[in-house]
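Predict the 3D structure for this chain.
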Amino acid sequence: MIGTYTAPTANLCGLSPSLPYLKPLSISPSETGDGDPRPGCPATKPVAPCPSTPAERWIELRWAVMGDRLRADHNYRLYSALVERMPQLKEQDWALKTINGIPDHQGWVKLGRESWLGIRCDLSLLEQFGTLDGQVLRVGQNLIQLGTLTGQSLQPSPDLQCRMVTIKSKFSCRVEPFEFGVVLGRQLNALGIQTMPILKERKIVEIHTTKVVGFRVAFSGLKPQESLTLQRHGVGGRRRMGCGYFE
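Done. Predicted structure below.
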C-alpha cells in the first residue's frame, strides 16, 4: 500500500544480515534485446560489505508520469534530467527506477495511466526529492510531467526481480554469463544473501555514448532480511541510472 508522506518520519523494519555461504548460480539460456514492459558459479573471494545507512532508513518514492512516449532505453537521459534539476544528486546515494510503459518494439515505450517514476533513497533526502512534485522534465527530446509524490518504506518480499544488472568489466560490451556470475556471486556474498539468483535474458543499455551489457536477474524465496538488503543495496553498478533496482 502506497501512502502520501507528510513528514520525514517512518516506522520501518530492522535489518541485521549475516554472511552465509553462496550457492551456485542458476542460468537460463534465453537472450533478447532491450525494451520491455515493467509491471553461474560460486564466489571465490569476498568483497568489502556495502557500507552506508541501514535499510530501515530507506524509502521508495513514486510519482505518476504524464506524457506521450519515451525511448525504451532512457536510463541515462532520465538521470541527466534529474541531475540538471538537482546537481547535488551526483554526490548522493540513491537509486532510480526507470519509467514503465507499453513497448512498441521499435525502441519506444508508450506512457499511460500506470506509468511511474521511482526513486529509493535515505529518509533524509525526502524533502529534497519532494521539490520534484509537478515538475516538467526533458528526458532526451521528450517532455514528461511528474504528479504528486507518494512513498512507502521498503517492504520484504520473497520474490524480487531486476530489469537489468550491470557489472564493471574490461569488456562491458560483451560480458558473458560466467564472468557475470562470478562478480554477482561475490557481491551477494558480501551482502549476506544466500538465496540462489537466476540469470535471465541479456540486456543492453546505452550510458551516454557507451553500450553496456547486463542481465535480468530474479530471486525467489528470499528471507525477509535478504529481501530488504537487496532492495536497499541492489547489486551491480549504475544504480542511479536505473540498473540494479529490485522490485
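Confidence is low (pLDDT under 50) at residues 1-51.
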